[in-house]
Amino acid sequence: MTKTKYAALLRGINVGGNKKVPMAELRQVLQDLGHEDAQTYLQSGNAVFASTTGKTPTALARELEAAIEAHFGFRVPCLVIDGAHLRAVAAACPFPAAELEGKQLHATFCSEQPAESRFASIDAPGYLPEEYRVGDHVIYLYAPNGLGRSKLAEALAKPAVAKGLDVTTRNWNTVAKLVELTRD
């Protein structure tokens, strides 16, 4: 069976002392699931692994969520994305990524494709110079002053947009690194 590289994006861990997931233990959880070449990037829930199981990214995510809950005692939403999709997300970026600082550009990965109707309440011109674009299971966000000061990021996180979706955001530096780490 073909070996495929994936990125696992964990949401809401190691923030403010909550949901502590040591990266060494996360790598071990991935290995215990039968995945190979497990490695982590930063402390914020980015892991890369190779799998020959042939399971879908969604099935891999549910399996990882169950293993994390069994190991650590709490649920952590996970998104698993294959390397080809990560490369496609990077290639389709509607903003000039090479010209921007990593903290100015973000990708919010979504468990399902968000319908355009979810964004009806957002008055995009009212947030300029901040902007967003919807891609394939991703929302690109240009926030020139960073995510922490972004009013548009707050609007995109509201239930009208995000309810019912597992979403997690990464800055562009992290996206680029995950693309690199998932290359075959």
SSE layout:
Layout: E1 4-10, H1 23-32, E2 36-41, E3 46-51, H2 57-72, E4 78-82, H3 83-91, E5 105-110, E6 131-135, E7 138-142, H4 151-156, H5 159-162, E8 167-171, H6 172-181
Helix pairs in contact: 3-6
Notes on the protein architecture:
The protein has 184 residues and is of the alpha+beta class. It contains six helices and eight strands; from the N terminus they run βαββαβαβββααβα. The strands form two sheets. A four-stranded antiparallel β-sheet has the order 2-3-1-4, with helices on both faces. Strand 6 and strand 7 form a beta hairpin.
Instruction: Please give the radius of gyration in angstroms.
Output: 16 Å
Strands of the biggest beta sheet: in what spatial order? Answer: 2-3-1-4
Please give the oligomerization state of what you see. single chain
Total beta-strand segments: 8
Question: Any idea what the shape is?
Answer: globular
Taken in chain order, the helices and strands follow as EHEEHEHEEEHHEH
**Mean model confidence by pLDDT:** 95
Specify the number of helices: 6
Query: What are the segments in which pLDDT stays under 50 over at least 5 consecutive residues?
Result: none
Largest sheet, strands/sense/barrel: 4 strands, antiparallel
- End-to-end CA span: 15 Å
* Helix fraction by DSSP (H/I, runs of at least 4): 25-40%
| Protein structure class | alpha+beta
Percent range for β-strand residues:
15-25%
